[in-house]
Structure formats: C-alpha cells, structure tokens
Specification:
Helix content: 40-55%
CATH superfamily: Ribonuclease H-like superfamily/Ribonuclease H
Order of helices and strands: EEEHEHEHHHHH
CATH class: Alpha Beta
Mean pLDDT: 81
Structural class: alpha/beta
CATH architecture: 2-Layer Sandwich
CATH topology: Nucleotidyltransferase, domain 5
Number of domains: 1
Strand order of the largest sheet: 3-2-1-4-5
Distance between the termini: 35 Å
Radius of gyration: 17 Å
Number of strands: 5
Shape: globular
Number of helices: 7
Length: 201
C-alpha cells in the first residue's frame, strides 16, 4: 500500500506556508516544507501566484491528500475576507489536483501538536521540529503548515483512513517531545499538557 503523503497549507496573501509529511507505519517523516512569498500586485494576480506555487509543490511532492487551516473571524473584517480569498486559491489548487482536502481550526491543530489549544508560534515551531526530527525549527508559516499536516495524520481515522498505530498516541508523543525539548534546554519540563495528562507520567 502506498504510504499517505499529506500536504499542509497555511495560506496568506503575503506568505503561504506549505509542508509535506509522509505517514509510514507508526512514524511521520518530513518530505519538504517552505514558504511561498507572494509578490505585490492586484488581488487577482496574487491569488493566481498562490495557486501556481501550490500546483508546483503538488507536482514535485505528489501528496495523496491535503489540509488547510480554517479562517477565524478577527477584529478586522477586511483582513478576514482577504485571508479567506487566499484560502480559496489554496483549496482550488489542491482540489483541482485531485486531492481530498480537510480543514481544521487553529485550536484543533494546536491541540494535536501540543495538547494545548493556546500554544504560541515559538512553541509550535519547536514541537514540529521535535515531532519530525528536524535539525532546526522551520519558519513560522512552514511550521504552521507542517502542524496542520500532522493534525491530519492524527485525525485520519475520523476521515475513514487507516491510522498507523503510533498516530493514536499523539498526546504521548507530544509529551515525549516536550521532555526532549526541556532536556535540550537543561530545564525542568514545562509542558502545556493538562495537569491530568502531566500526571499520567
């Protein structure tokens, strides 16, 4: 059976992050990640640039599915509208490539990676690095895209996809990664997991 290869997308009109991971057996491995830096211009040309850039990533990495973070409504309706249009370009690129596309809120992604729905960007970058065994933390937009892909790897069972055994233990994996991060810093673990989770030792 062909391993699952998941493309995570963090859309934006200035920077669109992407990250591709592979799910094989009970492990996750990094394939590619980066940031599409969108040039200045009218809205239509910027959306086309997002679409073309993601098409190239899809052709190069051959994912089997994709996932995109859902838009949240912030205090600036105009910014929300523009972000929604960037998401539309990303969704079209993935769908036209024949990929099943899944969507998650920022809260769901953060909980999947850290067990804590309010983790900040630095925590997310470091956790993504630890979970994927990367030599250094990816850029923030790429890390968000990789985190979305990891979230989909964990949620595959709910989507009707066979989940590898290790994927169902995401909180244990996150706890182990936080422990490794704490050891790297030479400090006691300050895990964002709930007190109940931390007490399971």
């Amino acid at each position: 059976m062909r391993p699952r290869r998941i493309l995570g997308i963090d859309p934006g009109l200035q920077r669109t992050g992407f990250g591709v991971i592979e799910v094989r057996g009970d492990g996750l491995s990094w394939i590619e990640s980066g940031v599409l830096r969108i040039g200045k211009g009218d809205l239509a040309s910027r959306l086309a640039e997002i679409h073309r850039g993601l098409q190239e990533v899809i052709e190069r990495t051959a994912p089997t599915e994709a996932c995109v973070e859902k838009v949240f409504v912030n205090v600036n309706p105009q910014s929300t509208l523009l972000l929604g249009q960037a998401r539309g370009a990303a969704l079209c690129a993935a769908s036209l490539a024949g990929l099943a596309v899944h969507e998650y809120t920022a809260l769901q992604v953060k909980q999947a990676i850290t067990g804590f729905g309010h983790a900040d960007k630095v925590q997310m970058q470091k956790m993504v690095r630890m979970l994927l065994g990367l030599a250094s933390a990816p850029a923030a937009d790429a890390a968000d895209a990789l985190a979305c892909a990891i979230c989909q790897a964990h949620a595959g069972k709910r989507q009707g996809v066979a989940v590898p055994a290790g994927a169902t233990r995401r909180r244990g994996s996150a706890r182990a990664a936080w422990g490794a991060l704490a050891a790297e810093r030479g400090k006691a673990t300050t895990s964002p997991l709930s007190p109940r989770e931390r007490g399971r030792g």
